[in-house]
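A note from the maintainers: we've had questions about how concatenated examples are separated. There is no special marker in the raw files; a new sequence line simply starts the next protein. For clarity in this README we add a label.
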Amino acid sequence: MENKLIIAKEAPPLSRSALRFALYFYLKSRNTLMVIFACEAAQAACTIMLPYAIKEIIDAVILANTTGADIFDASKDALILFAVLNLGIVLFSRASGAALVMTGPFLRTEIRKSLFSYLQHHSHRYFVSHFAGSLASRIAEVATSCMHALWTITFDFYPLIIKSVVALILLFTASSDLALVLSLWLAVYIYVSFLLAKKCRSYAQDFAAARSLVTGKIVDSVTNVMNAKMFARRKYEEAYLTDYLNEEVSQAKRTFWYMEKLRWFQYTAAMVLMVGMVGYALKIWSEGNLTVGEFSMVAGLAIMLIEAARGLSRSFLEFFEYLGNISDGVGVFVQSHDIVDSEEAVDLRVVKGQITFSNVTFIYQEGLKVFEQLDVTIPSKQQVGLVGFSGSGKSTFVNLMLRLFEPQSGRILIDGQNILEVTQDSLRESISMIPQDPQLFHRSLMENIRYGRLEASDEEVIEAAKKAHAHDFILQTEKQYDSLVGERGVKLSGGQRQRIAIARAILKNAPILILDEATSALDSVTEKKIQQGLDNLMKGRTVVVVAHRLSTIAHMDRILVFDEGKVIEDGNHKALLQIDGHYARLWNMQAGGFLPEQQT
């Protein structure tokens, strides 16, 4: 029984079962698929009846030779049947192909779009635990495998069923003994092949996981190629990747050798039956119980069916390989969403921007306790700095405010509204975040800035860039605002990326602003210019600044000093220095203007 998943209400209702997952998408094109199935059934029937038409032609020719009648007159009806069957094969196959063109790209797109949509609702914790490249690889592989599994059913399994039924009916008209032998062989052969191929699913799933892991490792290495160059680690990276490639090779050999063993069984069984059927038919013919035409039909039907059944070995193996790929993918993607909006969630309405942490307790899944009954209130439009050594709780405080994590107990309120009772989108629309290491899309500079407010005009984007002191360097790029920034913004310097992030936040114009040492990547001249823009941005807003360089928050209305998940000091810069406590020691031990990682 499938475990009950907690799924965000805007996410597609995907199943963790590979078959139910695929069926969810197949039903979206049920009408077109019914047309394909009907055409394939008709095509299969026409194909398997060709030996019958040939039998009619042979018998008519022999009869004409015996009676002296005109051969073409005697075989006219059989020739017409033969022509109609061939025409049917052409028309039905092309009709099926046209329907396939109509539904194939649509279904593949639907699967990829739905997986991406489901992925978007996963929490921050999920994404830090998975390779981005591996996730992208799995989306493509699941979509492709779903389509190949469908085509295997439609163009391999289903036609074989139709061919078998029609062939056995025709065989029974010629020889019930031959029909009985073939039907028993088909039943045993297909059943054994199914059981053997089913075991291949677990092998294929492990192989798919190995492939995705290798893809993730390659993307990770390519993303960090400058590290490899700077540390002269090219050979190390090659050796590191080789270990994972060897594991992929090992999984591939394990899978393919099992497939090869199965093929030995199927090809041997098909060979024995083919020789046996023709020999048995020859015996019955020699006894006068089959006409020449019937013998030809029996031999033709047996060869066609056995060839189709032998091809079934490949189809079974591929089908279960596709199911293994799907199982691997949905096992990674289709997990419960850690953080979901409640059914009664409403949009957050920020009028003042007051932030309240009330008796908040938070423990990471790994068991690390950060906060225990934390109480903090940040009044409307107050500018607050957060300081403390690494691991003291500053980043967790911000992440909880953004609802990237949820507390085990207590409440976090914005203007009296519990953030667990509002939609995540409305919460994050109300907060602008400028991180220390901003992430940009591989899109144009205009698109990256406009991401702050999608409906903004070009003029508004340019004005935001000017306030962030980004306009001048943008004009110096090759295509100016249409210039692409590269993956994660690699074509820009750290300071340039920071200015784009600041422009984006200026354009967003949210009532609450979070800064994570937003000017740390800038030179002193640019920092001074941008600080003026940030000061203008901070006016009239509730501001929370995570400080690594204490001088940047000395002018704040208030400073919260964190230590081991507790606020041990609270006041402005001057007051905290006067009490000569923890903050004063941090201020005095700054090296080069930055706070050390931990107390020495």
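[label: protein 2]
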Amino acid sequence: MSQGPFLLVVTCDGKSETHAFHQDVVSIGRSRECDLFLPDRLISRIHCRVERVDGVFALVDAGAQNPAKLRGRPVLRAELKVGESFTLGNYSIELAMPAVENASVDETRPGEHPRGGHDLVAFLQIARALNEEQDLTRLLTQIVDAAIRMCGAERGFLMLGKSGEHSVEVARNFAQEEVLSPEFKISRTIANRVSATGVPELTTNAQEDDRFRDLQSVTDLRLRSVLCIPIRIQSEIGGVLYVDNRLQQQVFQEREKQLLLSLADHAGTAIHNARSVEQLRGKQLELQAALDRVDQLNAALKGQLQERTNELTQIREELSPASLGLRSKYDYKQIVGQSRAMRAVFALLDKYIEADDPVLITGDSGTGKELVARAIHVHSRRSQCPFISENCAALPEALLESELFGYVKGAFTGATSNKKGLLESAHGGVLFLDEVGDMPLDLQKKLLRVLQEGEVRPLGGRETVRVDVRLICATNRNLELMVRDGDFREDLYYRLAVLPVHLPPLRDRREDIPLLVKRFLGDLGRDQHARVRVSPDAMERLTHYDWPGNVRELQNEVRRAAILGDGVILEAHLSEHVREGRRGPGSTFADDGLVPAERGTTLPDMVRELEIREIQKAFDRAQANKSRAADLLGLSRFALQRKLDKYALDATGRPTGAPVRDDETA
């Protein structure tokens, strides 16, 4: 605990100035770095020191050419008593002590207070609470509340800063309520004087105290009892603790002054510790923010590196002799894919586009069947004529029939005018029927008639209309099984499946996933004017997931992750089932607890689909080498050829369009 202040009274040319010090060593000299600055050429930069050891003062020379004189003699080190003076150049300096207390018009009552034991217990409790509090705002509030409680004050204020530059940090009353506009509720003169001298100020009645009664603030605020104590933070006065009572006199005595002095000493240490903790927390937050930013930049750089690597790989594949030999005749830029499976699809489309025969597109939901239909239309001679699309599963039978064939006025209730059907509207162009497997049998018969005769008869009409339409159908159902079960007309099936094309599921063309992600992010960037990248870890998860919902599911996943990510899609932004690689509900053999019949299939059909998919994967791995593919499947070359014949697959494992054999001995 501090030994209390002492004073150095400096006199020069008949003028005196009093300087208060609390530290035990005070340097004196011509340098502005000295604690006591004396601008005299006869004085050295650091001339001497006043030291205090166990309450005993000494005058110590600091190597000056003209040592300070004490009792008329130059000294190197000598005891300096209170009231004695020493000289330096033209200055005379006297050591003095402040009064034990600043006397008021009503004498305070010295001596021990009978509540000393109670005060000690209360102070220890307060000290413990201050030691445990690390939040600076709460700490300052606790200090003020403790000062009001210990002294019986009406209000308390805590100000921090240098003299004349104080800011009121906390202002509270005895009811622990905030004091509004605290800058105008205290005597600034008293606070500034205590901060400048380091000497506490106590008055039991400021209205009659000669020191304060002429102050405008004392008169305006009607102050009675006032006690103001300096707060020292690391040996320097860093603020003041100010309590008052505007209604009563003699509220504060020597007891309250000593309690507040002890509290102020402890508060100074607690404030310093809380500030240090606050600074450390701030630096920790800055460091964490910097680390997070570094992680984001690293992820972005990895994404850029992966993107460049993918681009180089793509360029090499495009320039390789094999890829140049497999270059498609038409530009299928809307269909993303460079895998062997997709190149086989493009090769079929190159041949199908120039024909006018119906095309049957098969494949799982979300594989892009409508994109293929539109590509056929765009590159065909019918590109300048309409492309009309209809989902057969989206409309009831009666409404679907009227949509396809049209109707005449009065054909049914509500038919107030003639309406062209989709077949007539698509004249000269392409009609795309999605989910054709859901078309009712009666409607299948009428569609077959249109294909055979090239004529449409609207509902309620007597005359037929000639139509020239190329029909492209799509389904994710097994039409062969439906024909066998009587759910789809066999004659219509063979009319629709003249030119079959099967779109592989995304799990069988994983090498296309990075290209698809790039396309989706590019579209998203154009819409939102922001560029998004994928971290290598996230791309690896995307590539290894099975995607039961195929391209549509991948597109939705990328869009969601881009919204969550801040310019970079990290692994944490992906859905949980994608991160963990679990099979989604759309997987062919998902563990959904259903038997084949409940899934709308049979065990042989499931086995056939599995064998076809594995054969295609083996051919892709073996780069269409039949012997190598047989080794990968654990079959002989002869056994593999039997499988190809059974499932009507070509030498690369792709459907030839021929009927699949239904013999179990193959």
